[in-house]
Model the fold of this input.
Amino acid sequence: MAKVVLISGSPRKNGNTMQVLGVCKEEVEKAGLEVDLISLHDKSIRSCIACYKCVGSGKCSLDDGLNEIIAKVRPAEGLIVAAPVYFGTARGDLMSALQRIGMVSYNNDKFLSWKVGGPVAVARRGGVSSSYQEMLMFFFINEMIVPGSTYWNIIFGKQPGEALNDAEGINTVRRFAQNVAVLIKKLN
Ligand SMILES: Cc1cc2nc3c(=O)[nH]c(=O)nc-3n(C[C@H](O)[C@H](O)[C@H](O)COP(=O)(O)O)c2cc1C
Done:
């Protein structure tokens, strides 16, 4: 069965980002695909240290749990990532994870190519578009296929739970997750 990996970049175990990914999970599973939901809340993901030891080795030289995430992402058909917005940008740990996953893919078997997915940005008010675009850079430089939705994948909410009250945002993400599943099924 095709699998979609979902990565939450929030330090909150059950924060808005996780709750929004819960909606994605629901839709992807409804479409008959398998989901692997990963949270960075219990991890501390370092930035790439530019050692280039990933070249040819297929893994990252840093031992902080990222290789275990890569092992789940590599065989999956889809990848959806979601981040809380911090000072107008996607949270650092999530971007660090994406940059290192990208380096390992690019310098080895390009396992990210043709995966279907995209980003979701969650914030109280400001910086959602820039964070969404920031994360899109990762998808497009890695030959990934990003379906659209009825709006961009941006959700508003501050305290955990508030994001689920953003009806337009939730509907957009729901449709996006459906489109990820539709596309994976068409491609496979
Ligand atoms: C360090 C920090 C910086 C933040 N910066 C922004 C920001 O630039 N714009 C915004 O709208 N919300 C900002 N927020 C609020 C969070 O994006 C918002 O509470 C979000 O729902 C958190 O998602 P989570 O519950 O999944 O962690 C910030 C929160 C923190 C802790």
Q: What stands out?
A: The pocket of flavin mononucleotide is lined by residues 10, 12, 15-17, 84-88, 122-127, 157-158, 160, 163 (CB under 6 Å).
